[in-house]
What we know:
mainly alpha; 9 helices; 0% strand; disordered N terminus; disordered C terminus
Amino acid sequence: MRESVVGQxxxxxxxxxxxxxxxxxxxxxEAHTKVPEITPWFWASKIAMxxxxxxxxxxxxxxxxxxxxxxxxxIGVILxxxxxxRQDRYxxxxxxxxxxxxxxxxxxxxDAFHVGLGWPYTISMSFYAVILAGIFIYWYRSEGTxxxxxIYNRRRENLYWLTVFATFALGTAAGDFTAxxxxxxxxxxxxxxxxxxxxxxxxRYGLGVNAIFCFWFAYTITRPFGASxxxxxxxxxxxxxxxxxxxxxxxxxxxIVVGLVWYMASRQVGFRPARAQPHMEPALAGAxxx
Length: 290
C-alpha cells in the first residue's frame, strides 16, 4: 500500500479470512490498521485540530495557570489513548480524540522549554527535531517501515503516536520561531507555512519523491501552519493579529473541528475495508514499495 499526500491509498492485499478467531489468535497480517486513509478530509481535520489545540492550550494556561492546565491536558491525552488502544481498527472518534489531545498538550510541551526554562526557540526547535529523528530511526530499524498503512500492532501504534507528539512539539516551536524570533509575525508565518506545505505535494507528484517521506514532511508542517492560523486570530492588532481573543478563537476553531469530525464519522470517511498489509516497505529510500 502506498502513501499519498492527498487522495486515498489503495490496499495492496485483499481481506484475509479469520474474523471468527479471537483477536489474540489472529496473525498480524489479518489485523486492521489503526489509522485512517489519507484523504483531503484528513489534512483539513489535521490542520484545524492543530489550530484548535494551539488556541485551547493558550486559553487554558492563561485562565487556569500551567500548574493546573498542563496536568488536565495530560490526563486528557491519557484517556484518549486508552480509548484508542481499545479499538481493533480505525474508528473516527477515538483516533481524532487523541490527535486533539496531543494538539493541546503538545503546544504546552513545546512552550515549556521557552517559557519555563528560558530556552530560545532555536534550541527547543532543534531539541524536538533530534527527538523526531531518533524516533524515525528507531521505528525504521525495529519495524522496517515508517508507513502509516502498517499500524496494526501495539508497538507500531506506540511509535506512531510518539511521532505525532514530536511533530506537534516541533511544529509549535517552528511557528513561534518564525513569528517572534525572526520577527515575521503571525499572518506572514501562516502564509509561509502554507507555501511550505505545498512542497511535499510538488515533490511527490512532480518529482516522484518517496511517498512516506512526503507524508511525514507534510504532516510536520501542518502544525506550524495551523498554530500560525490560531495565533493570527487570537493576537492583538498591534502584534499582527485579528484580536479575536483566546476563548473566541478556541470556540470558532472547535466548531470547525466538530463539524469535520462529525462529517467523517457520519460518512465513514477514512475507513479502511481491507486489513493491514503484512509486508515491509522501505521508509525514506526513493525505491518503490515491495
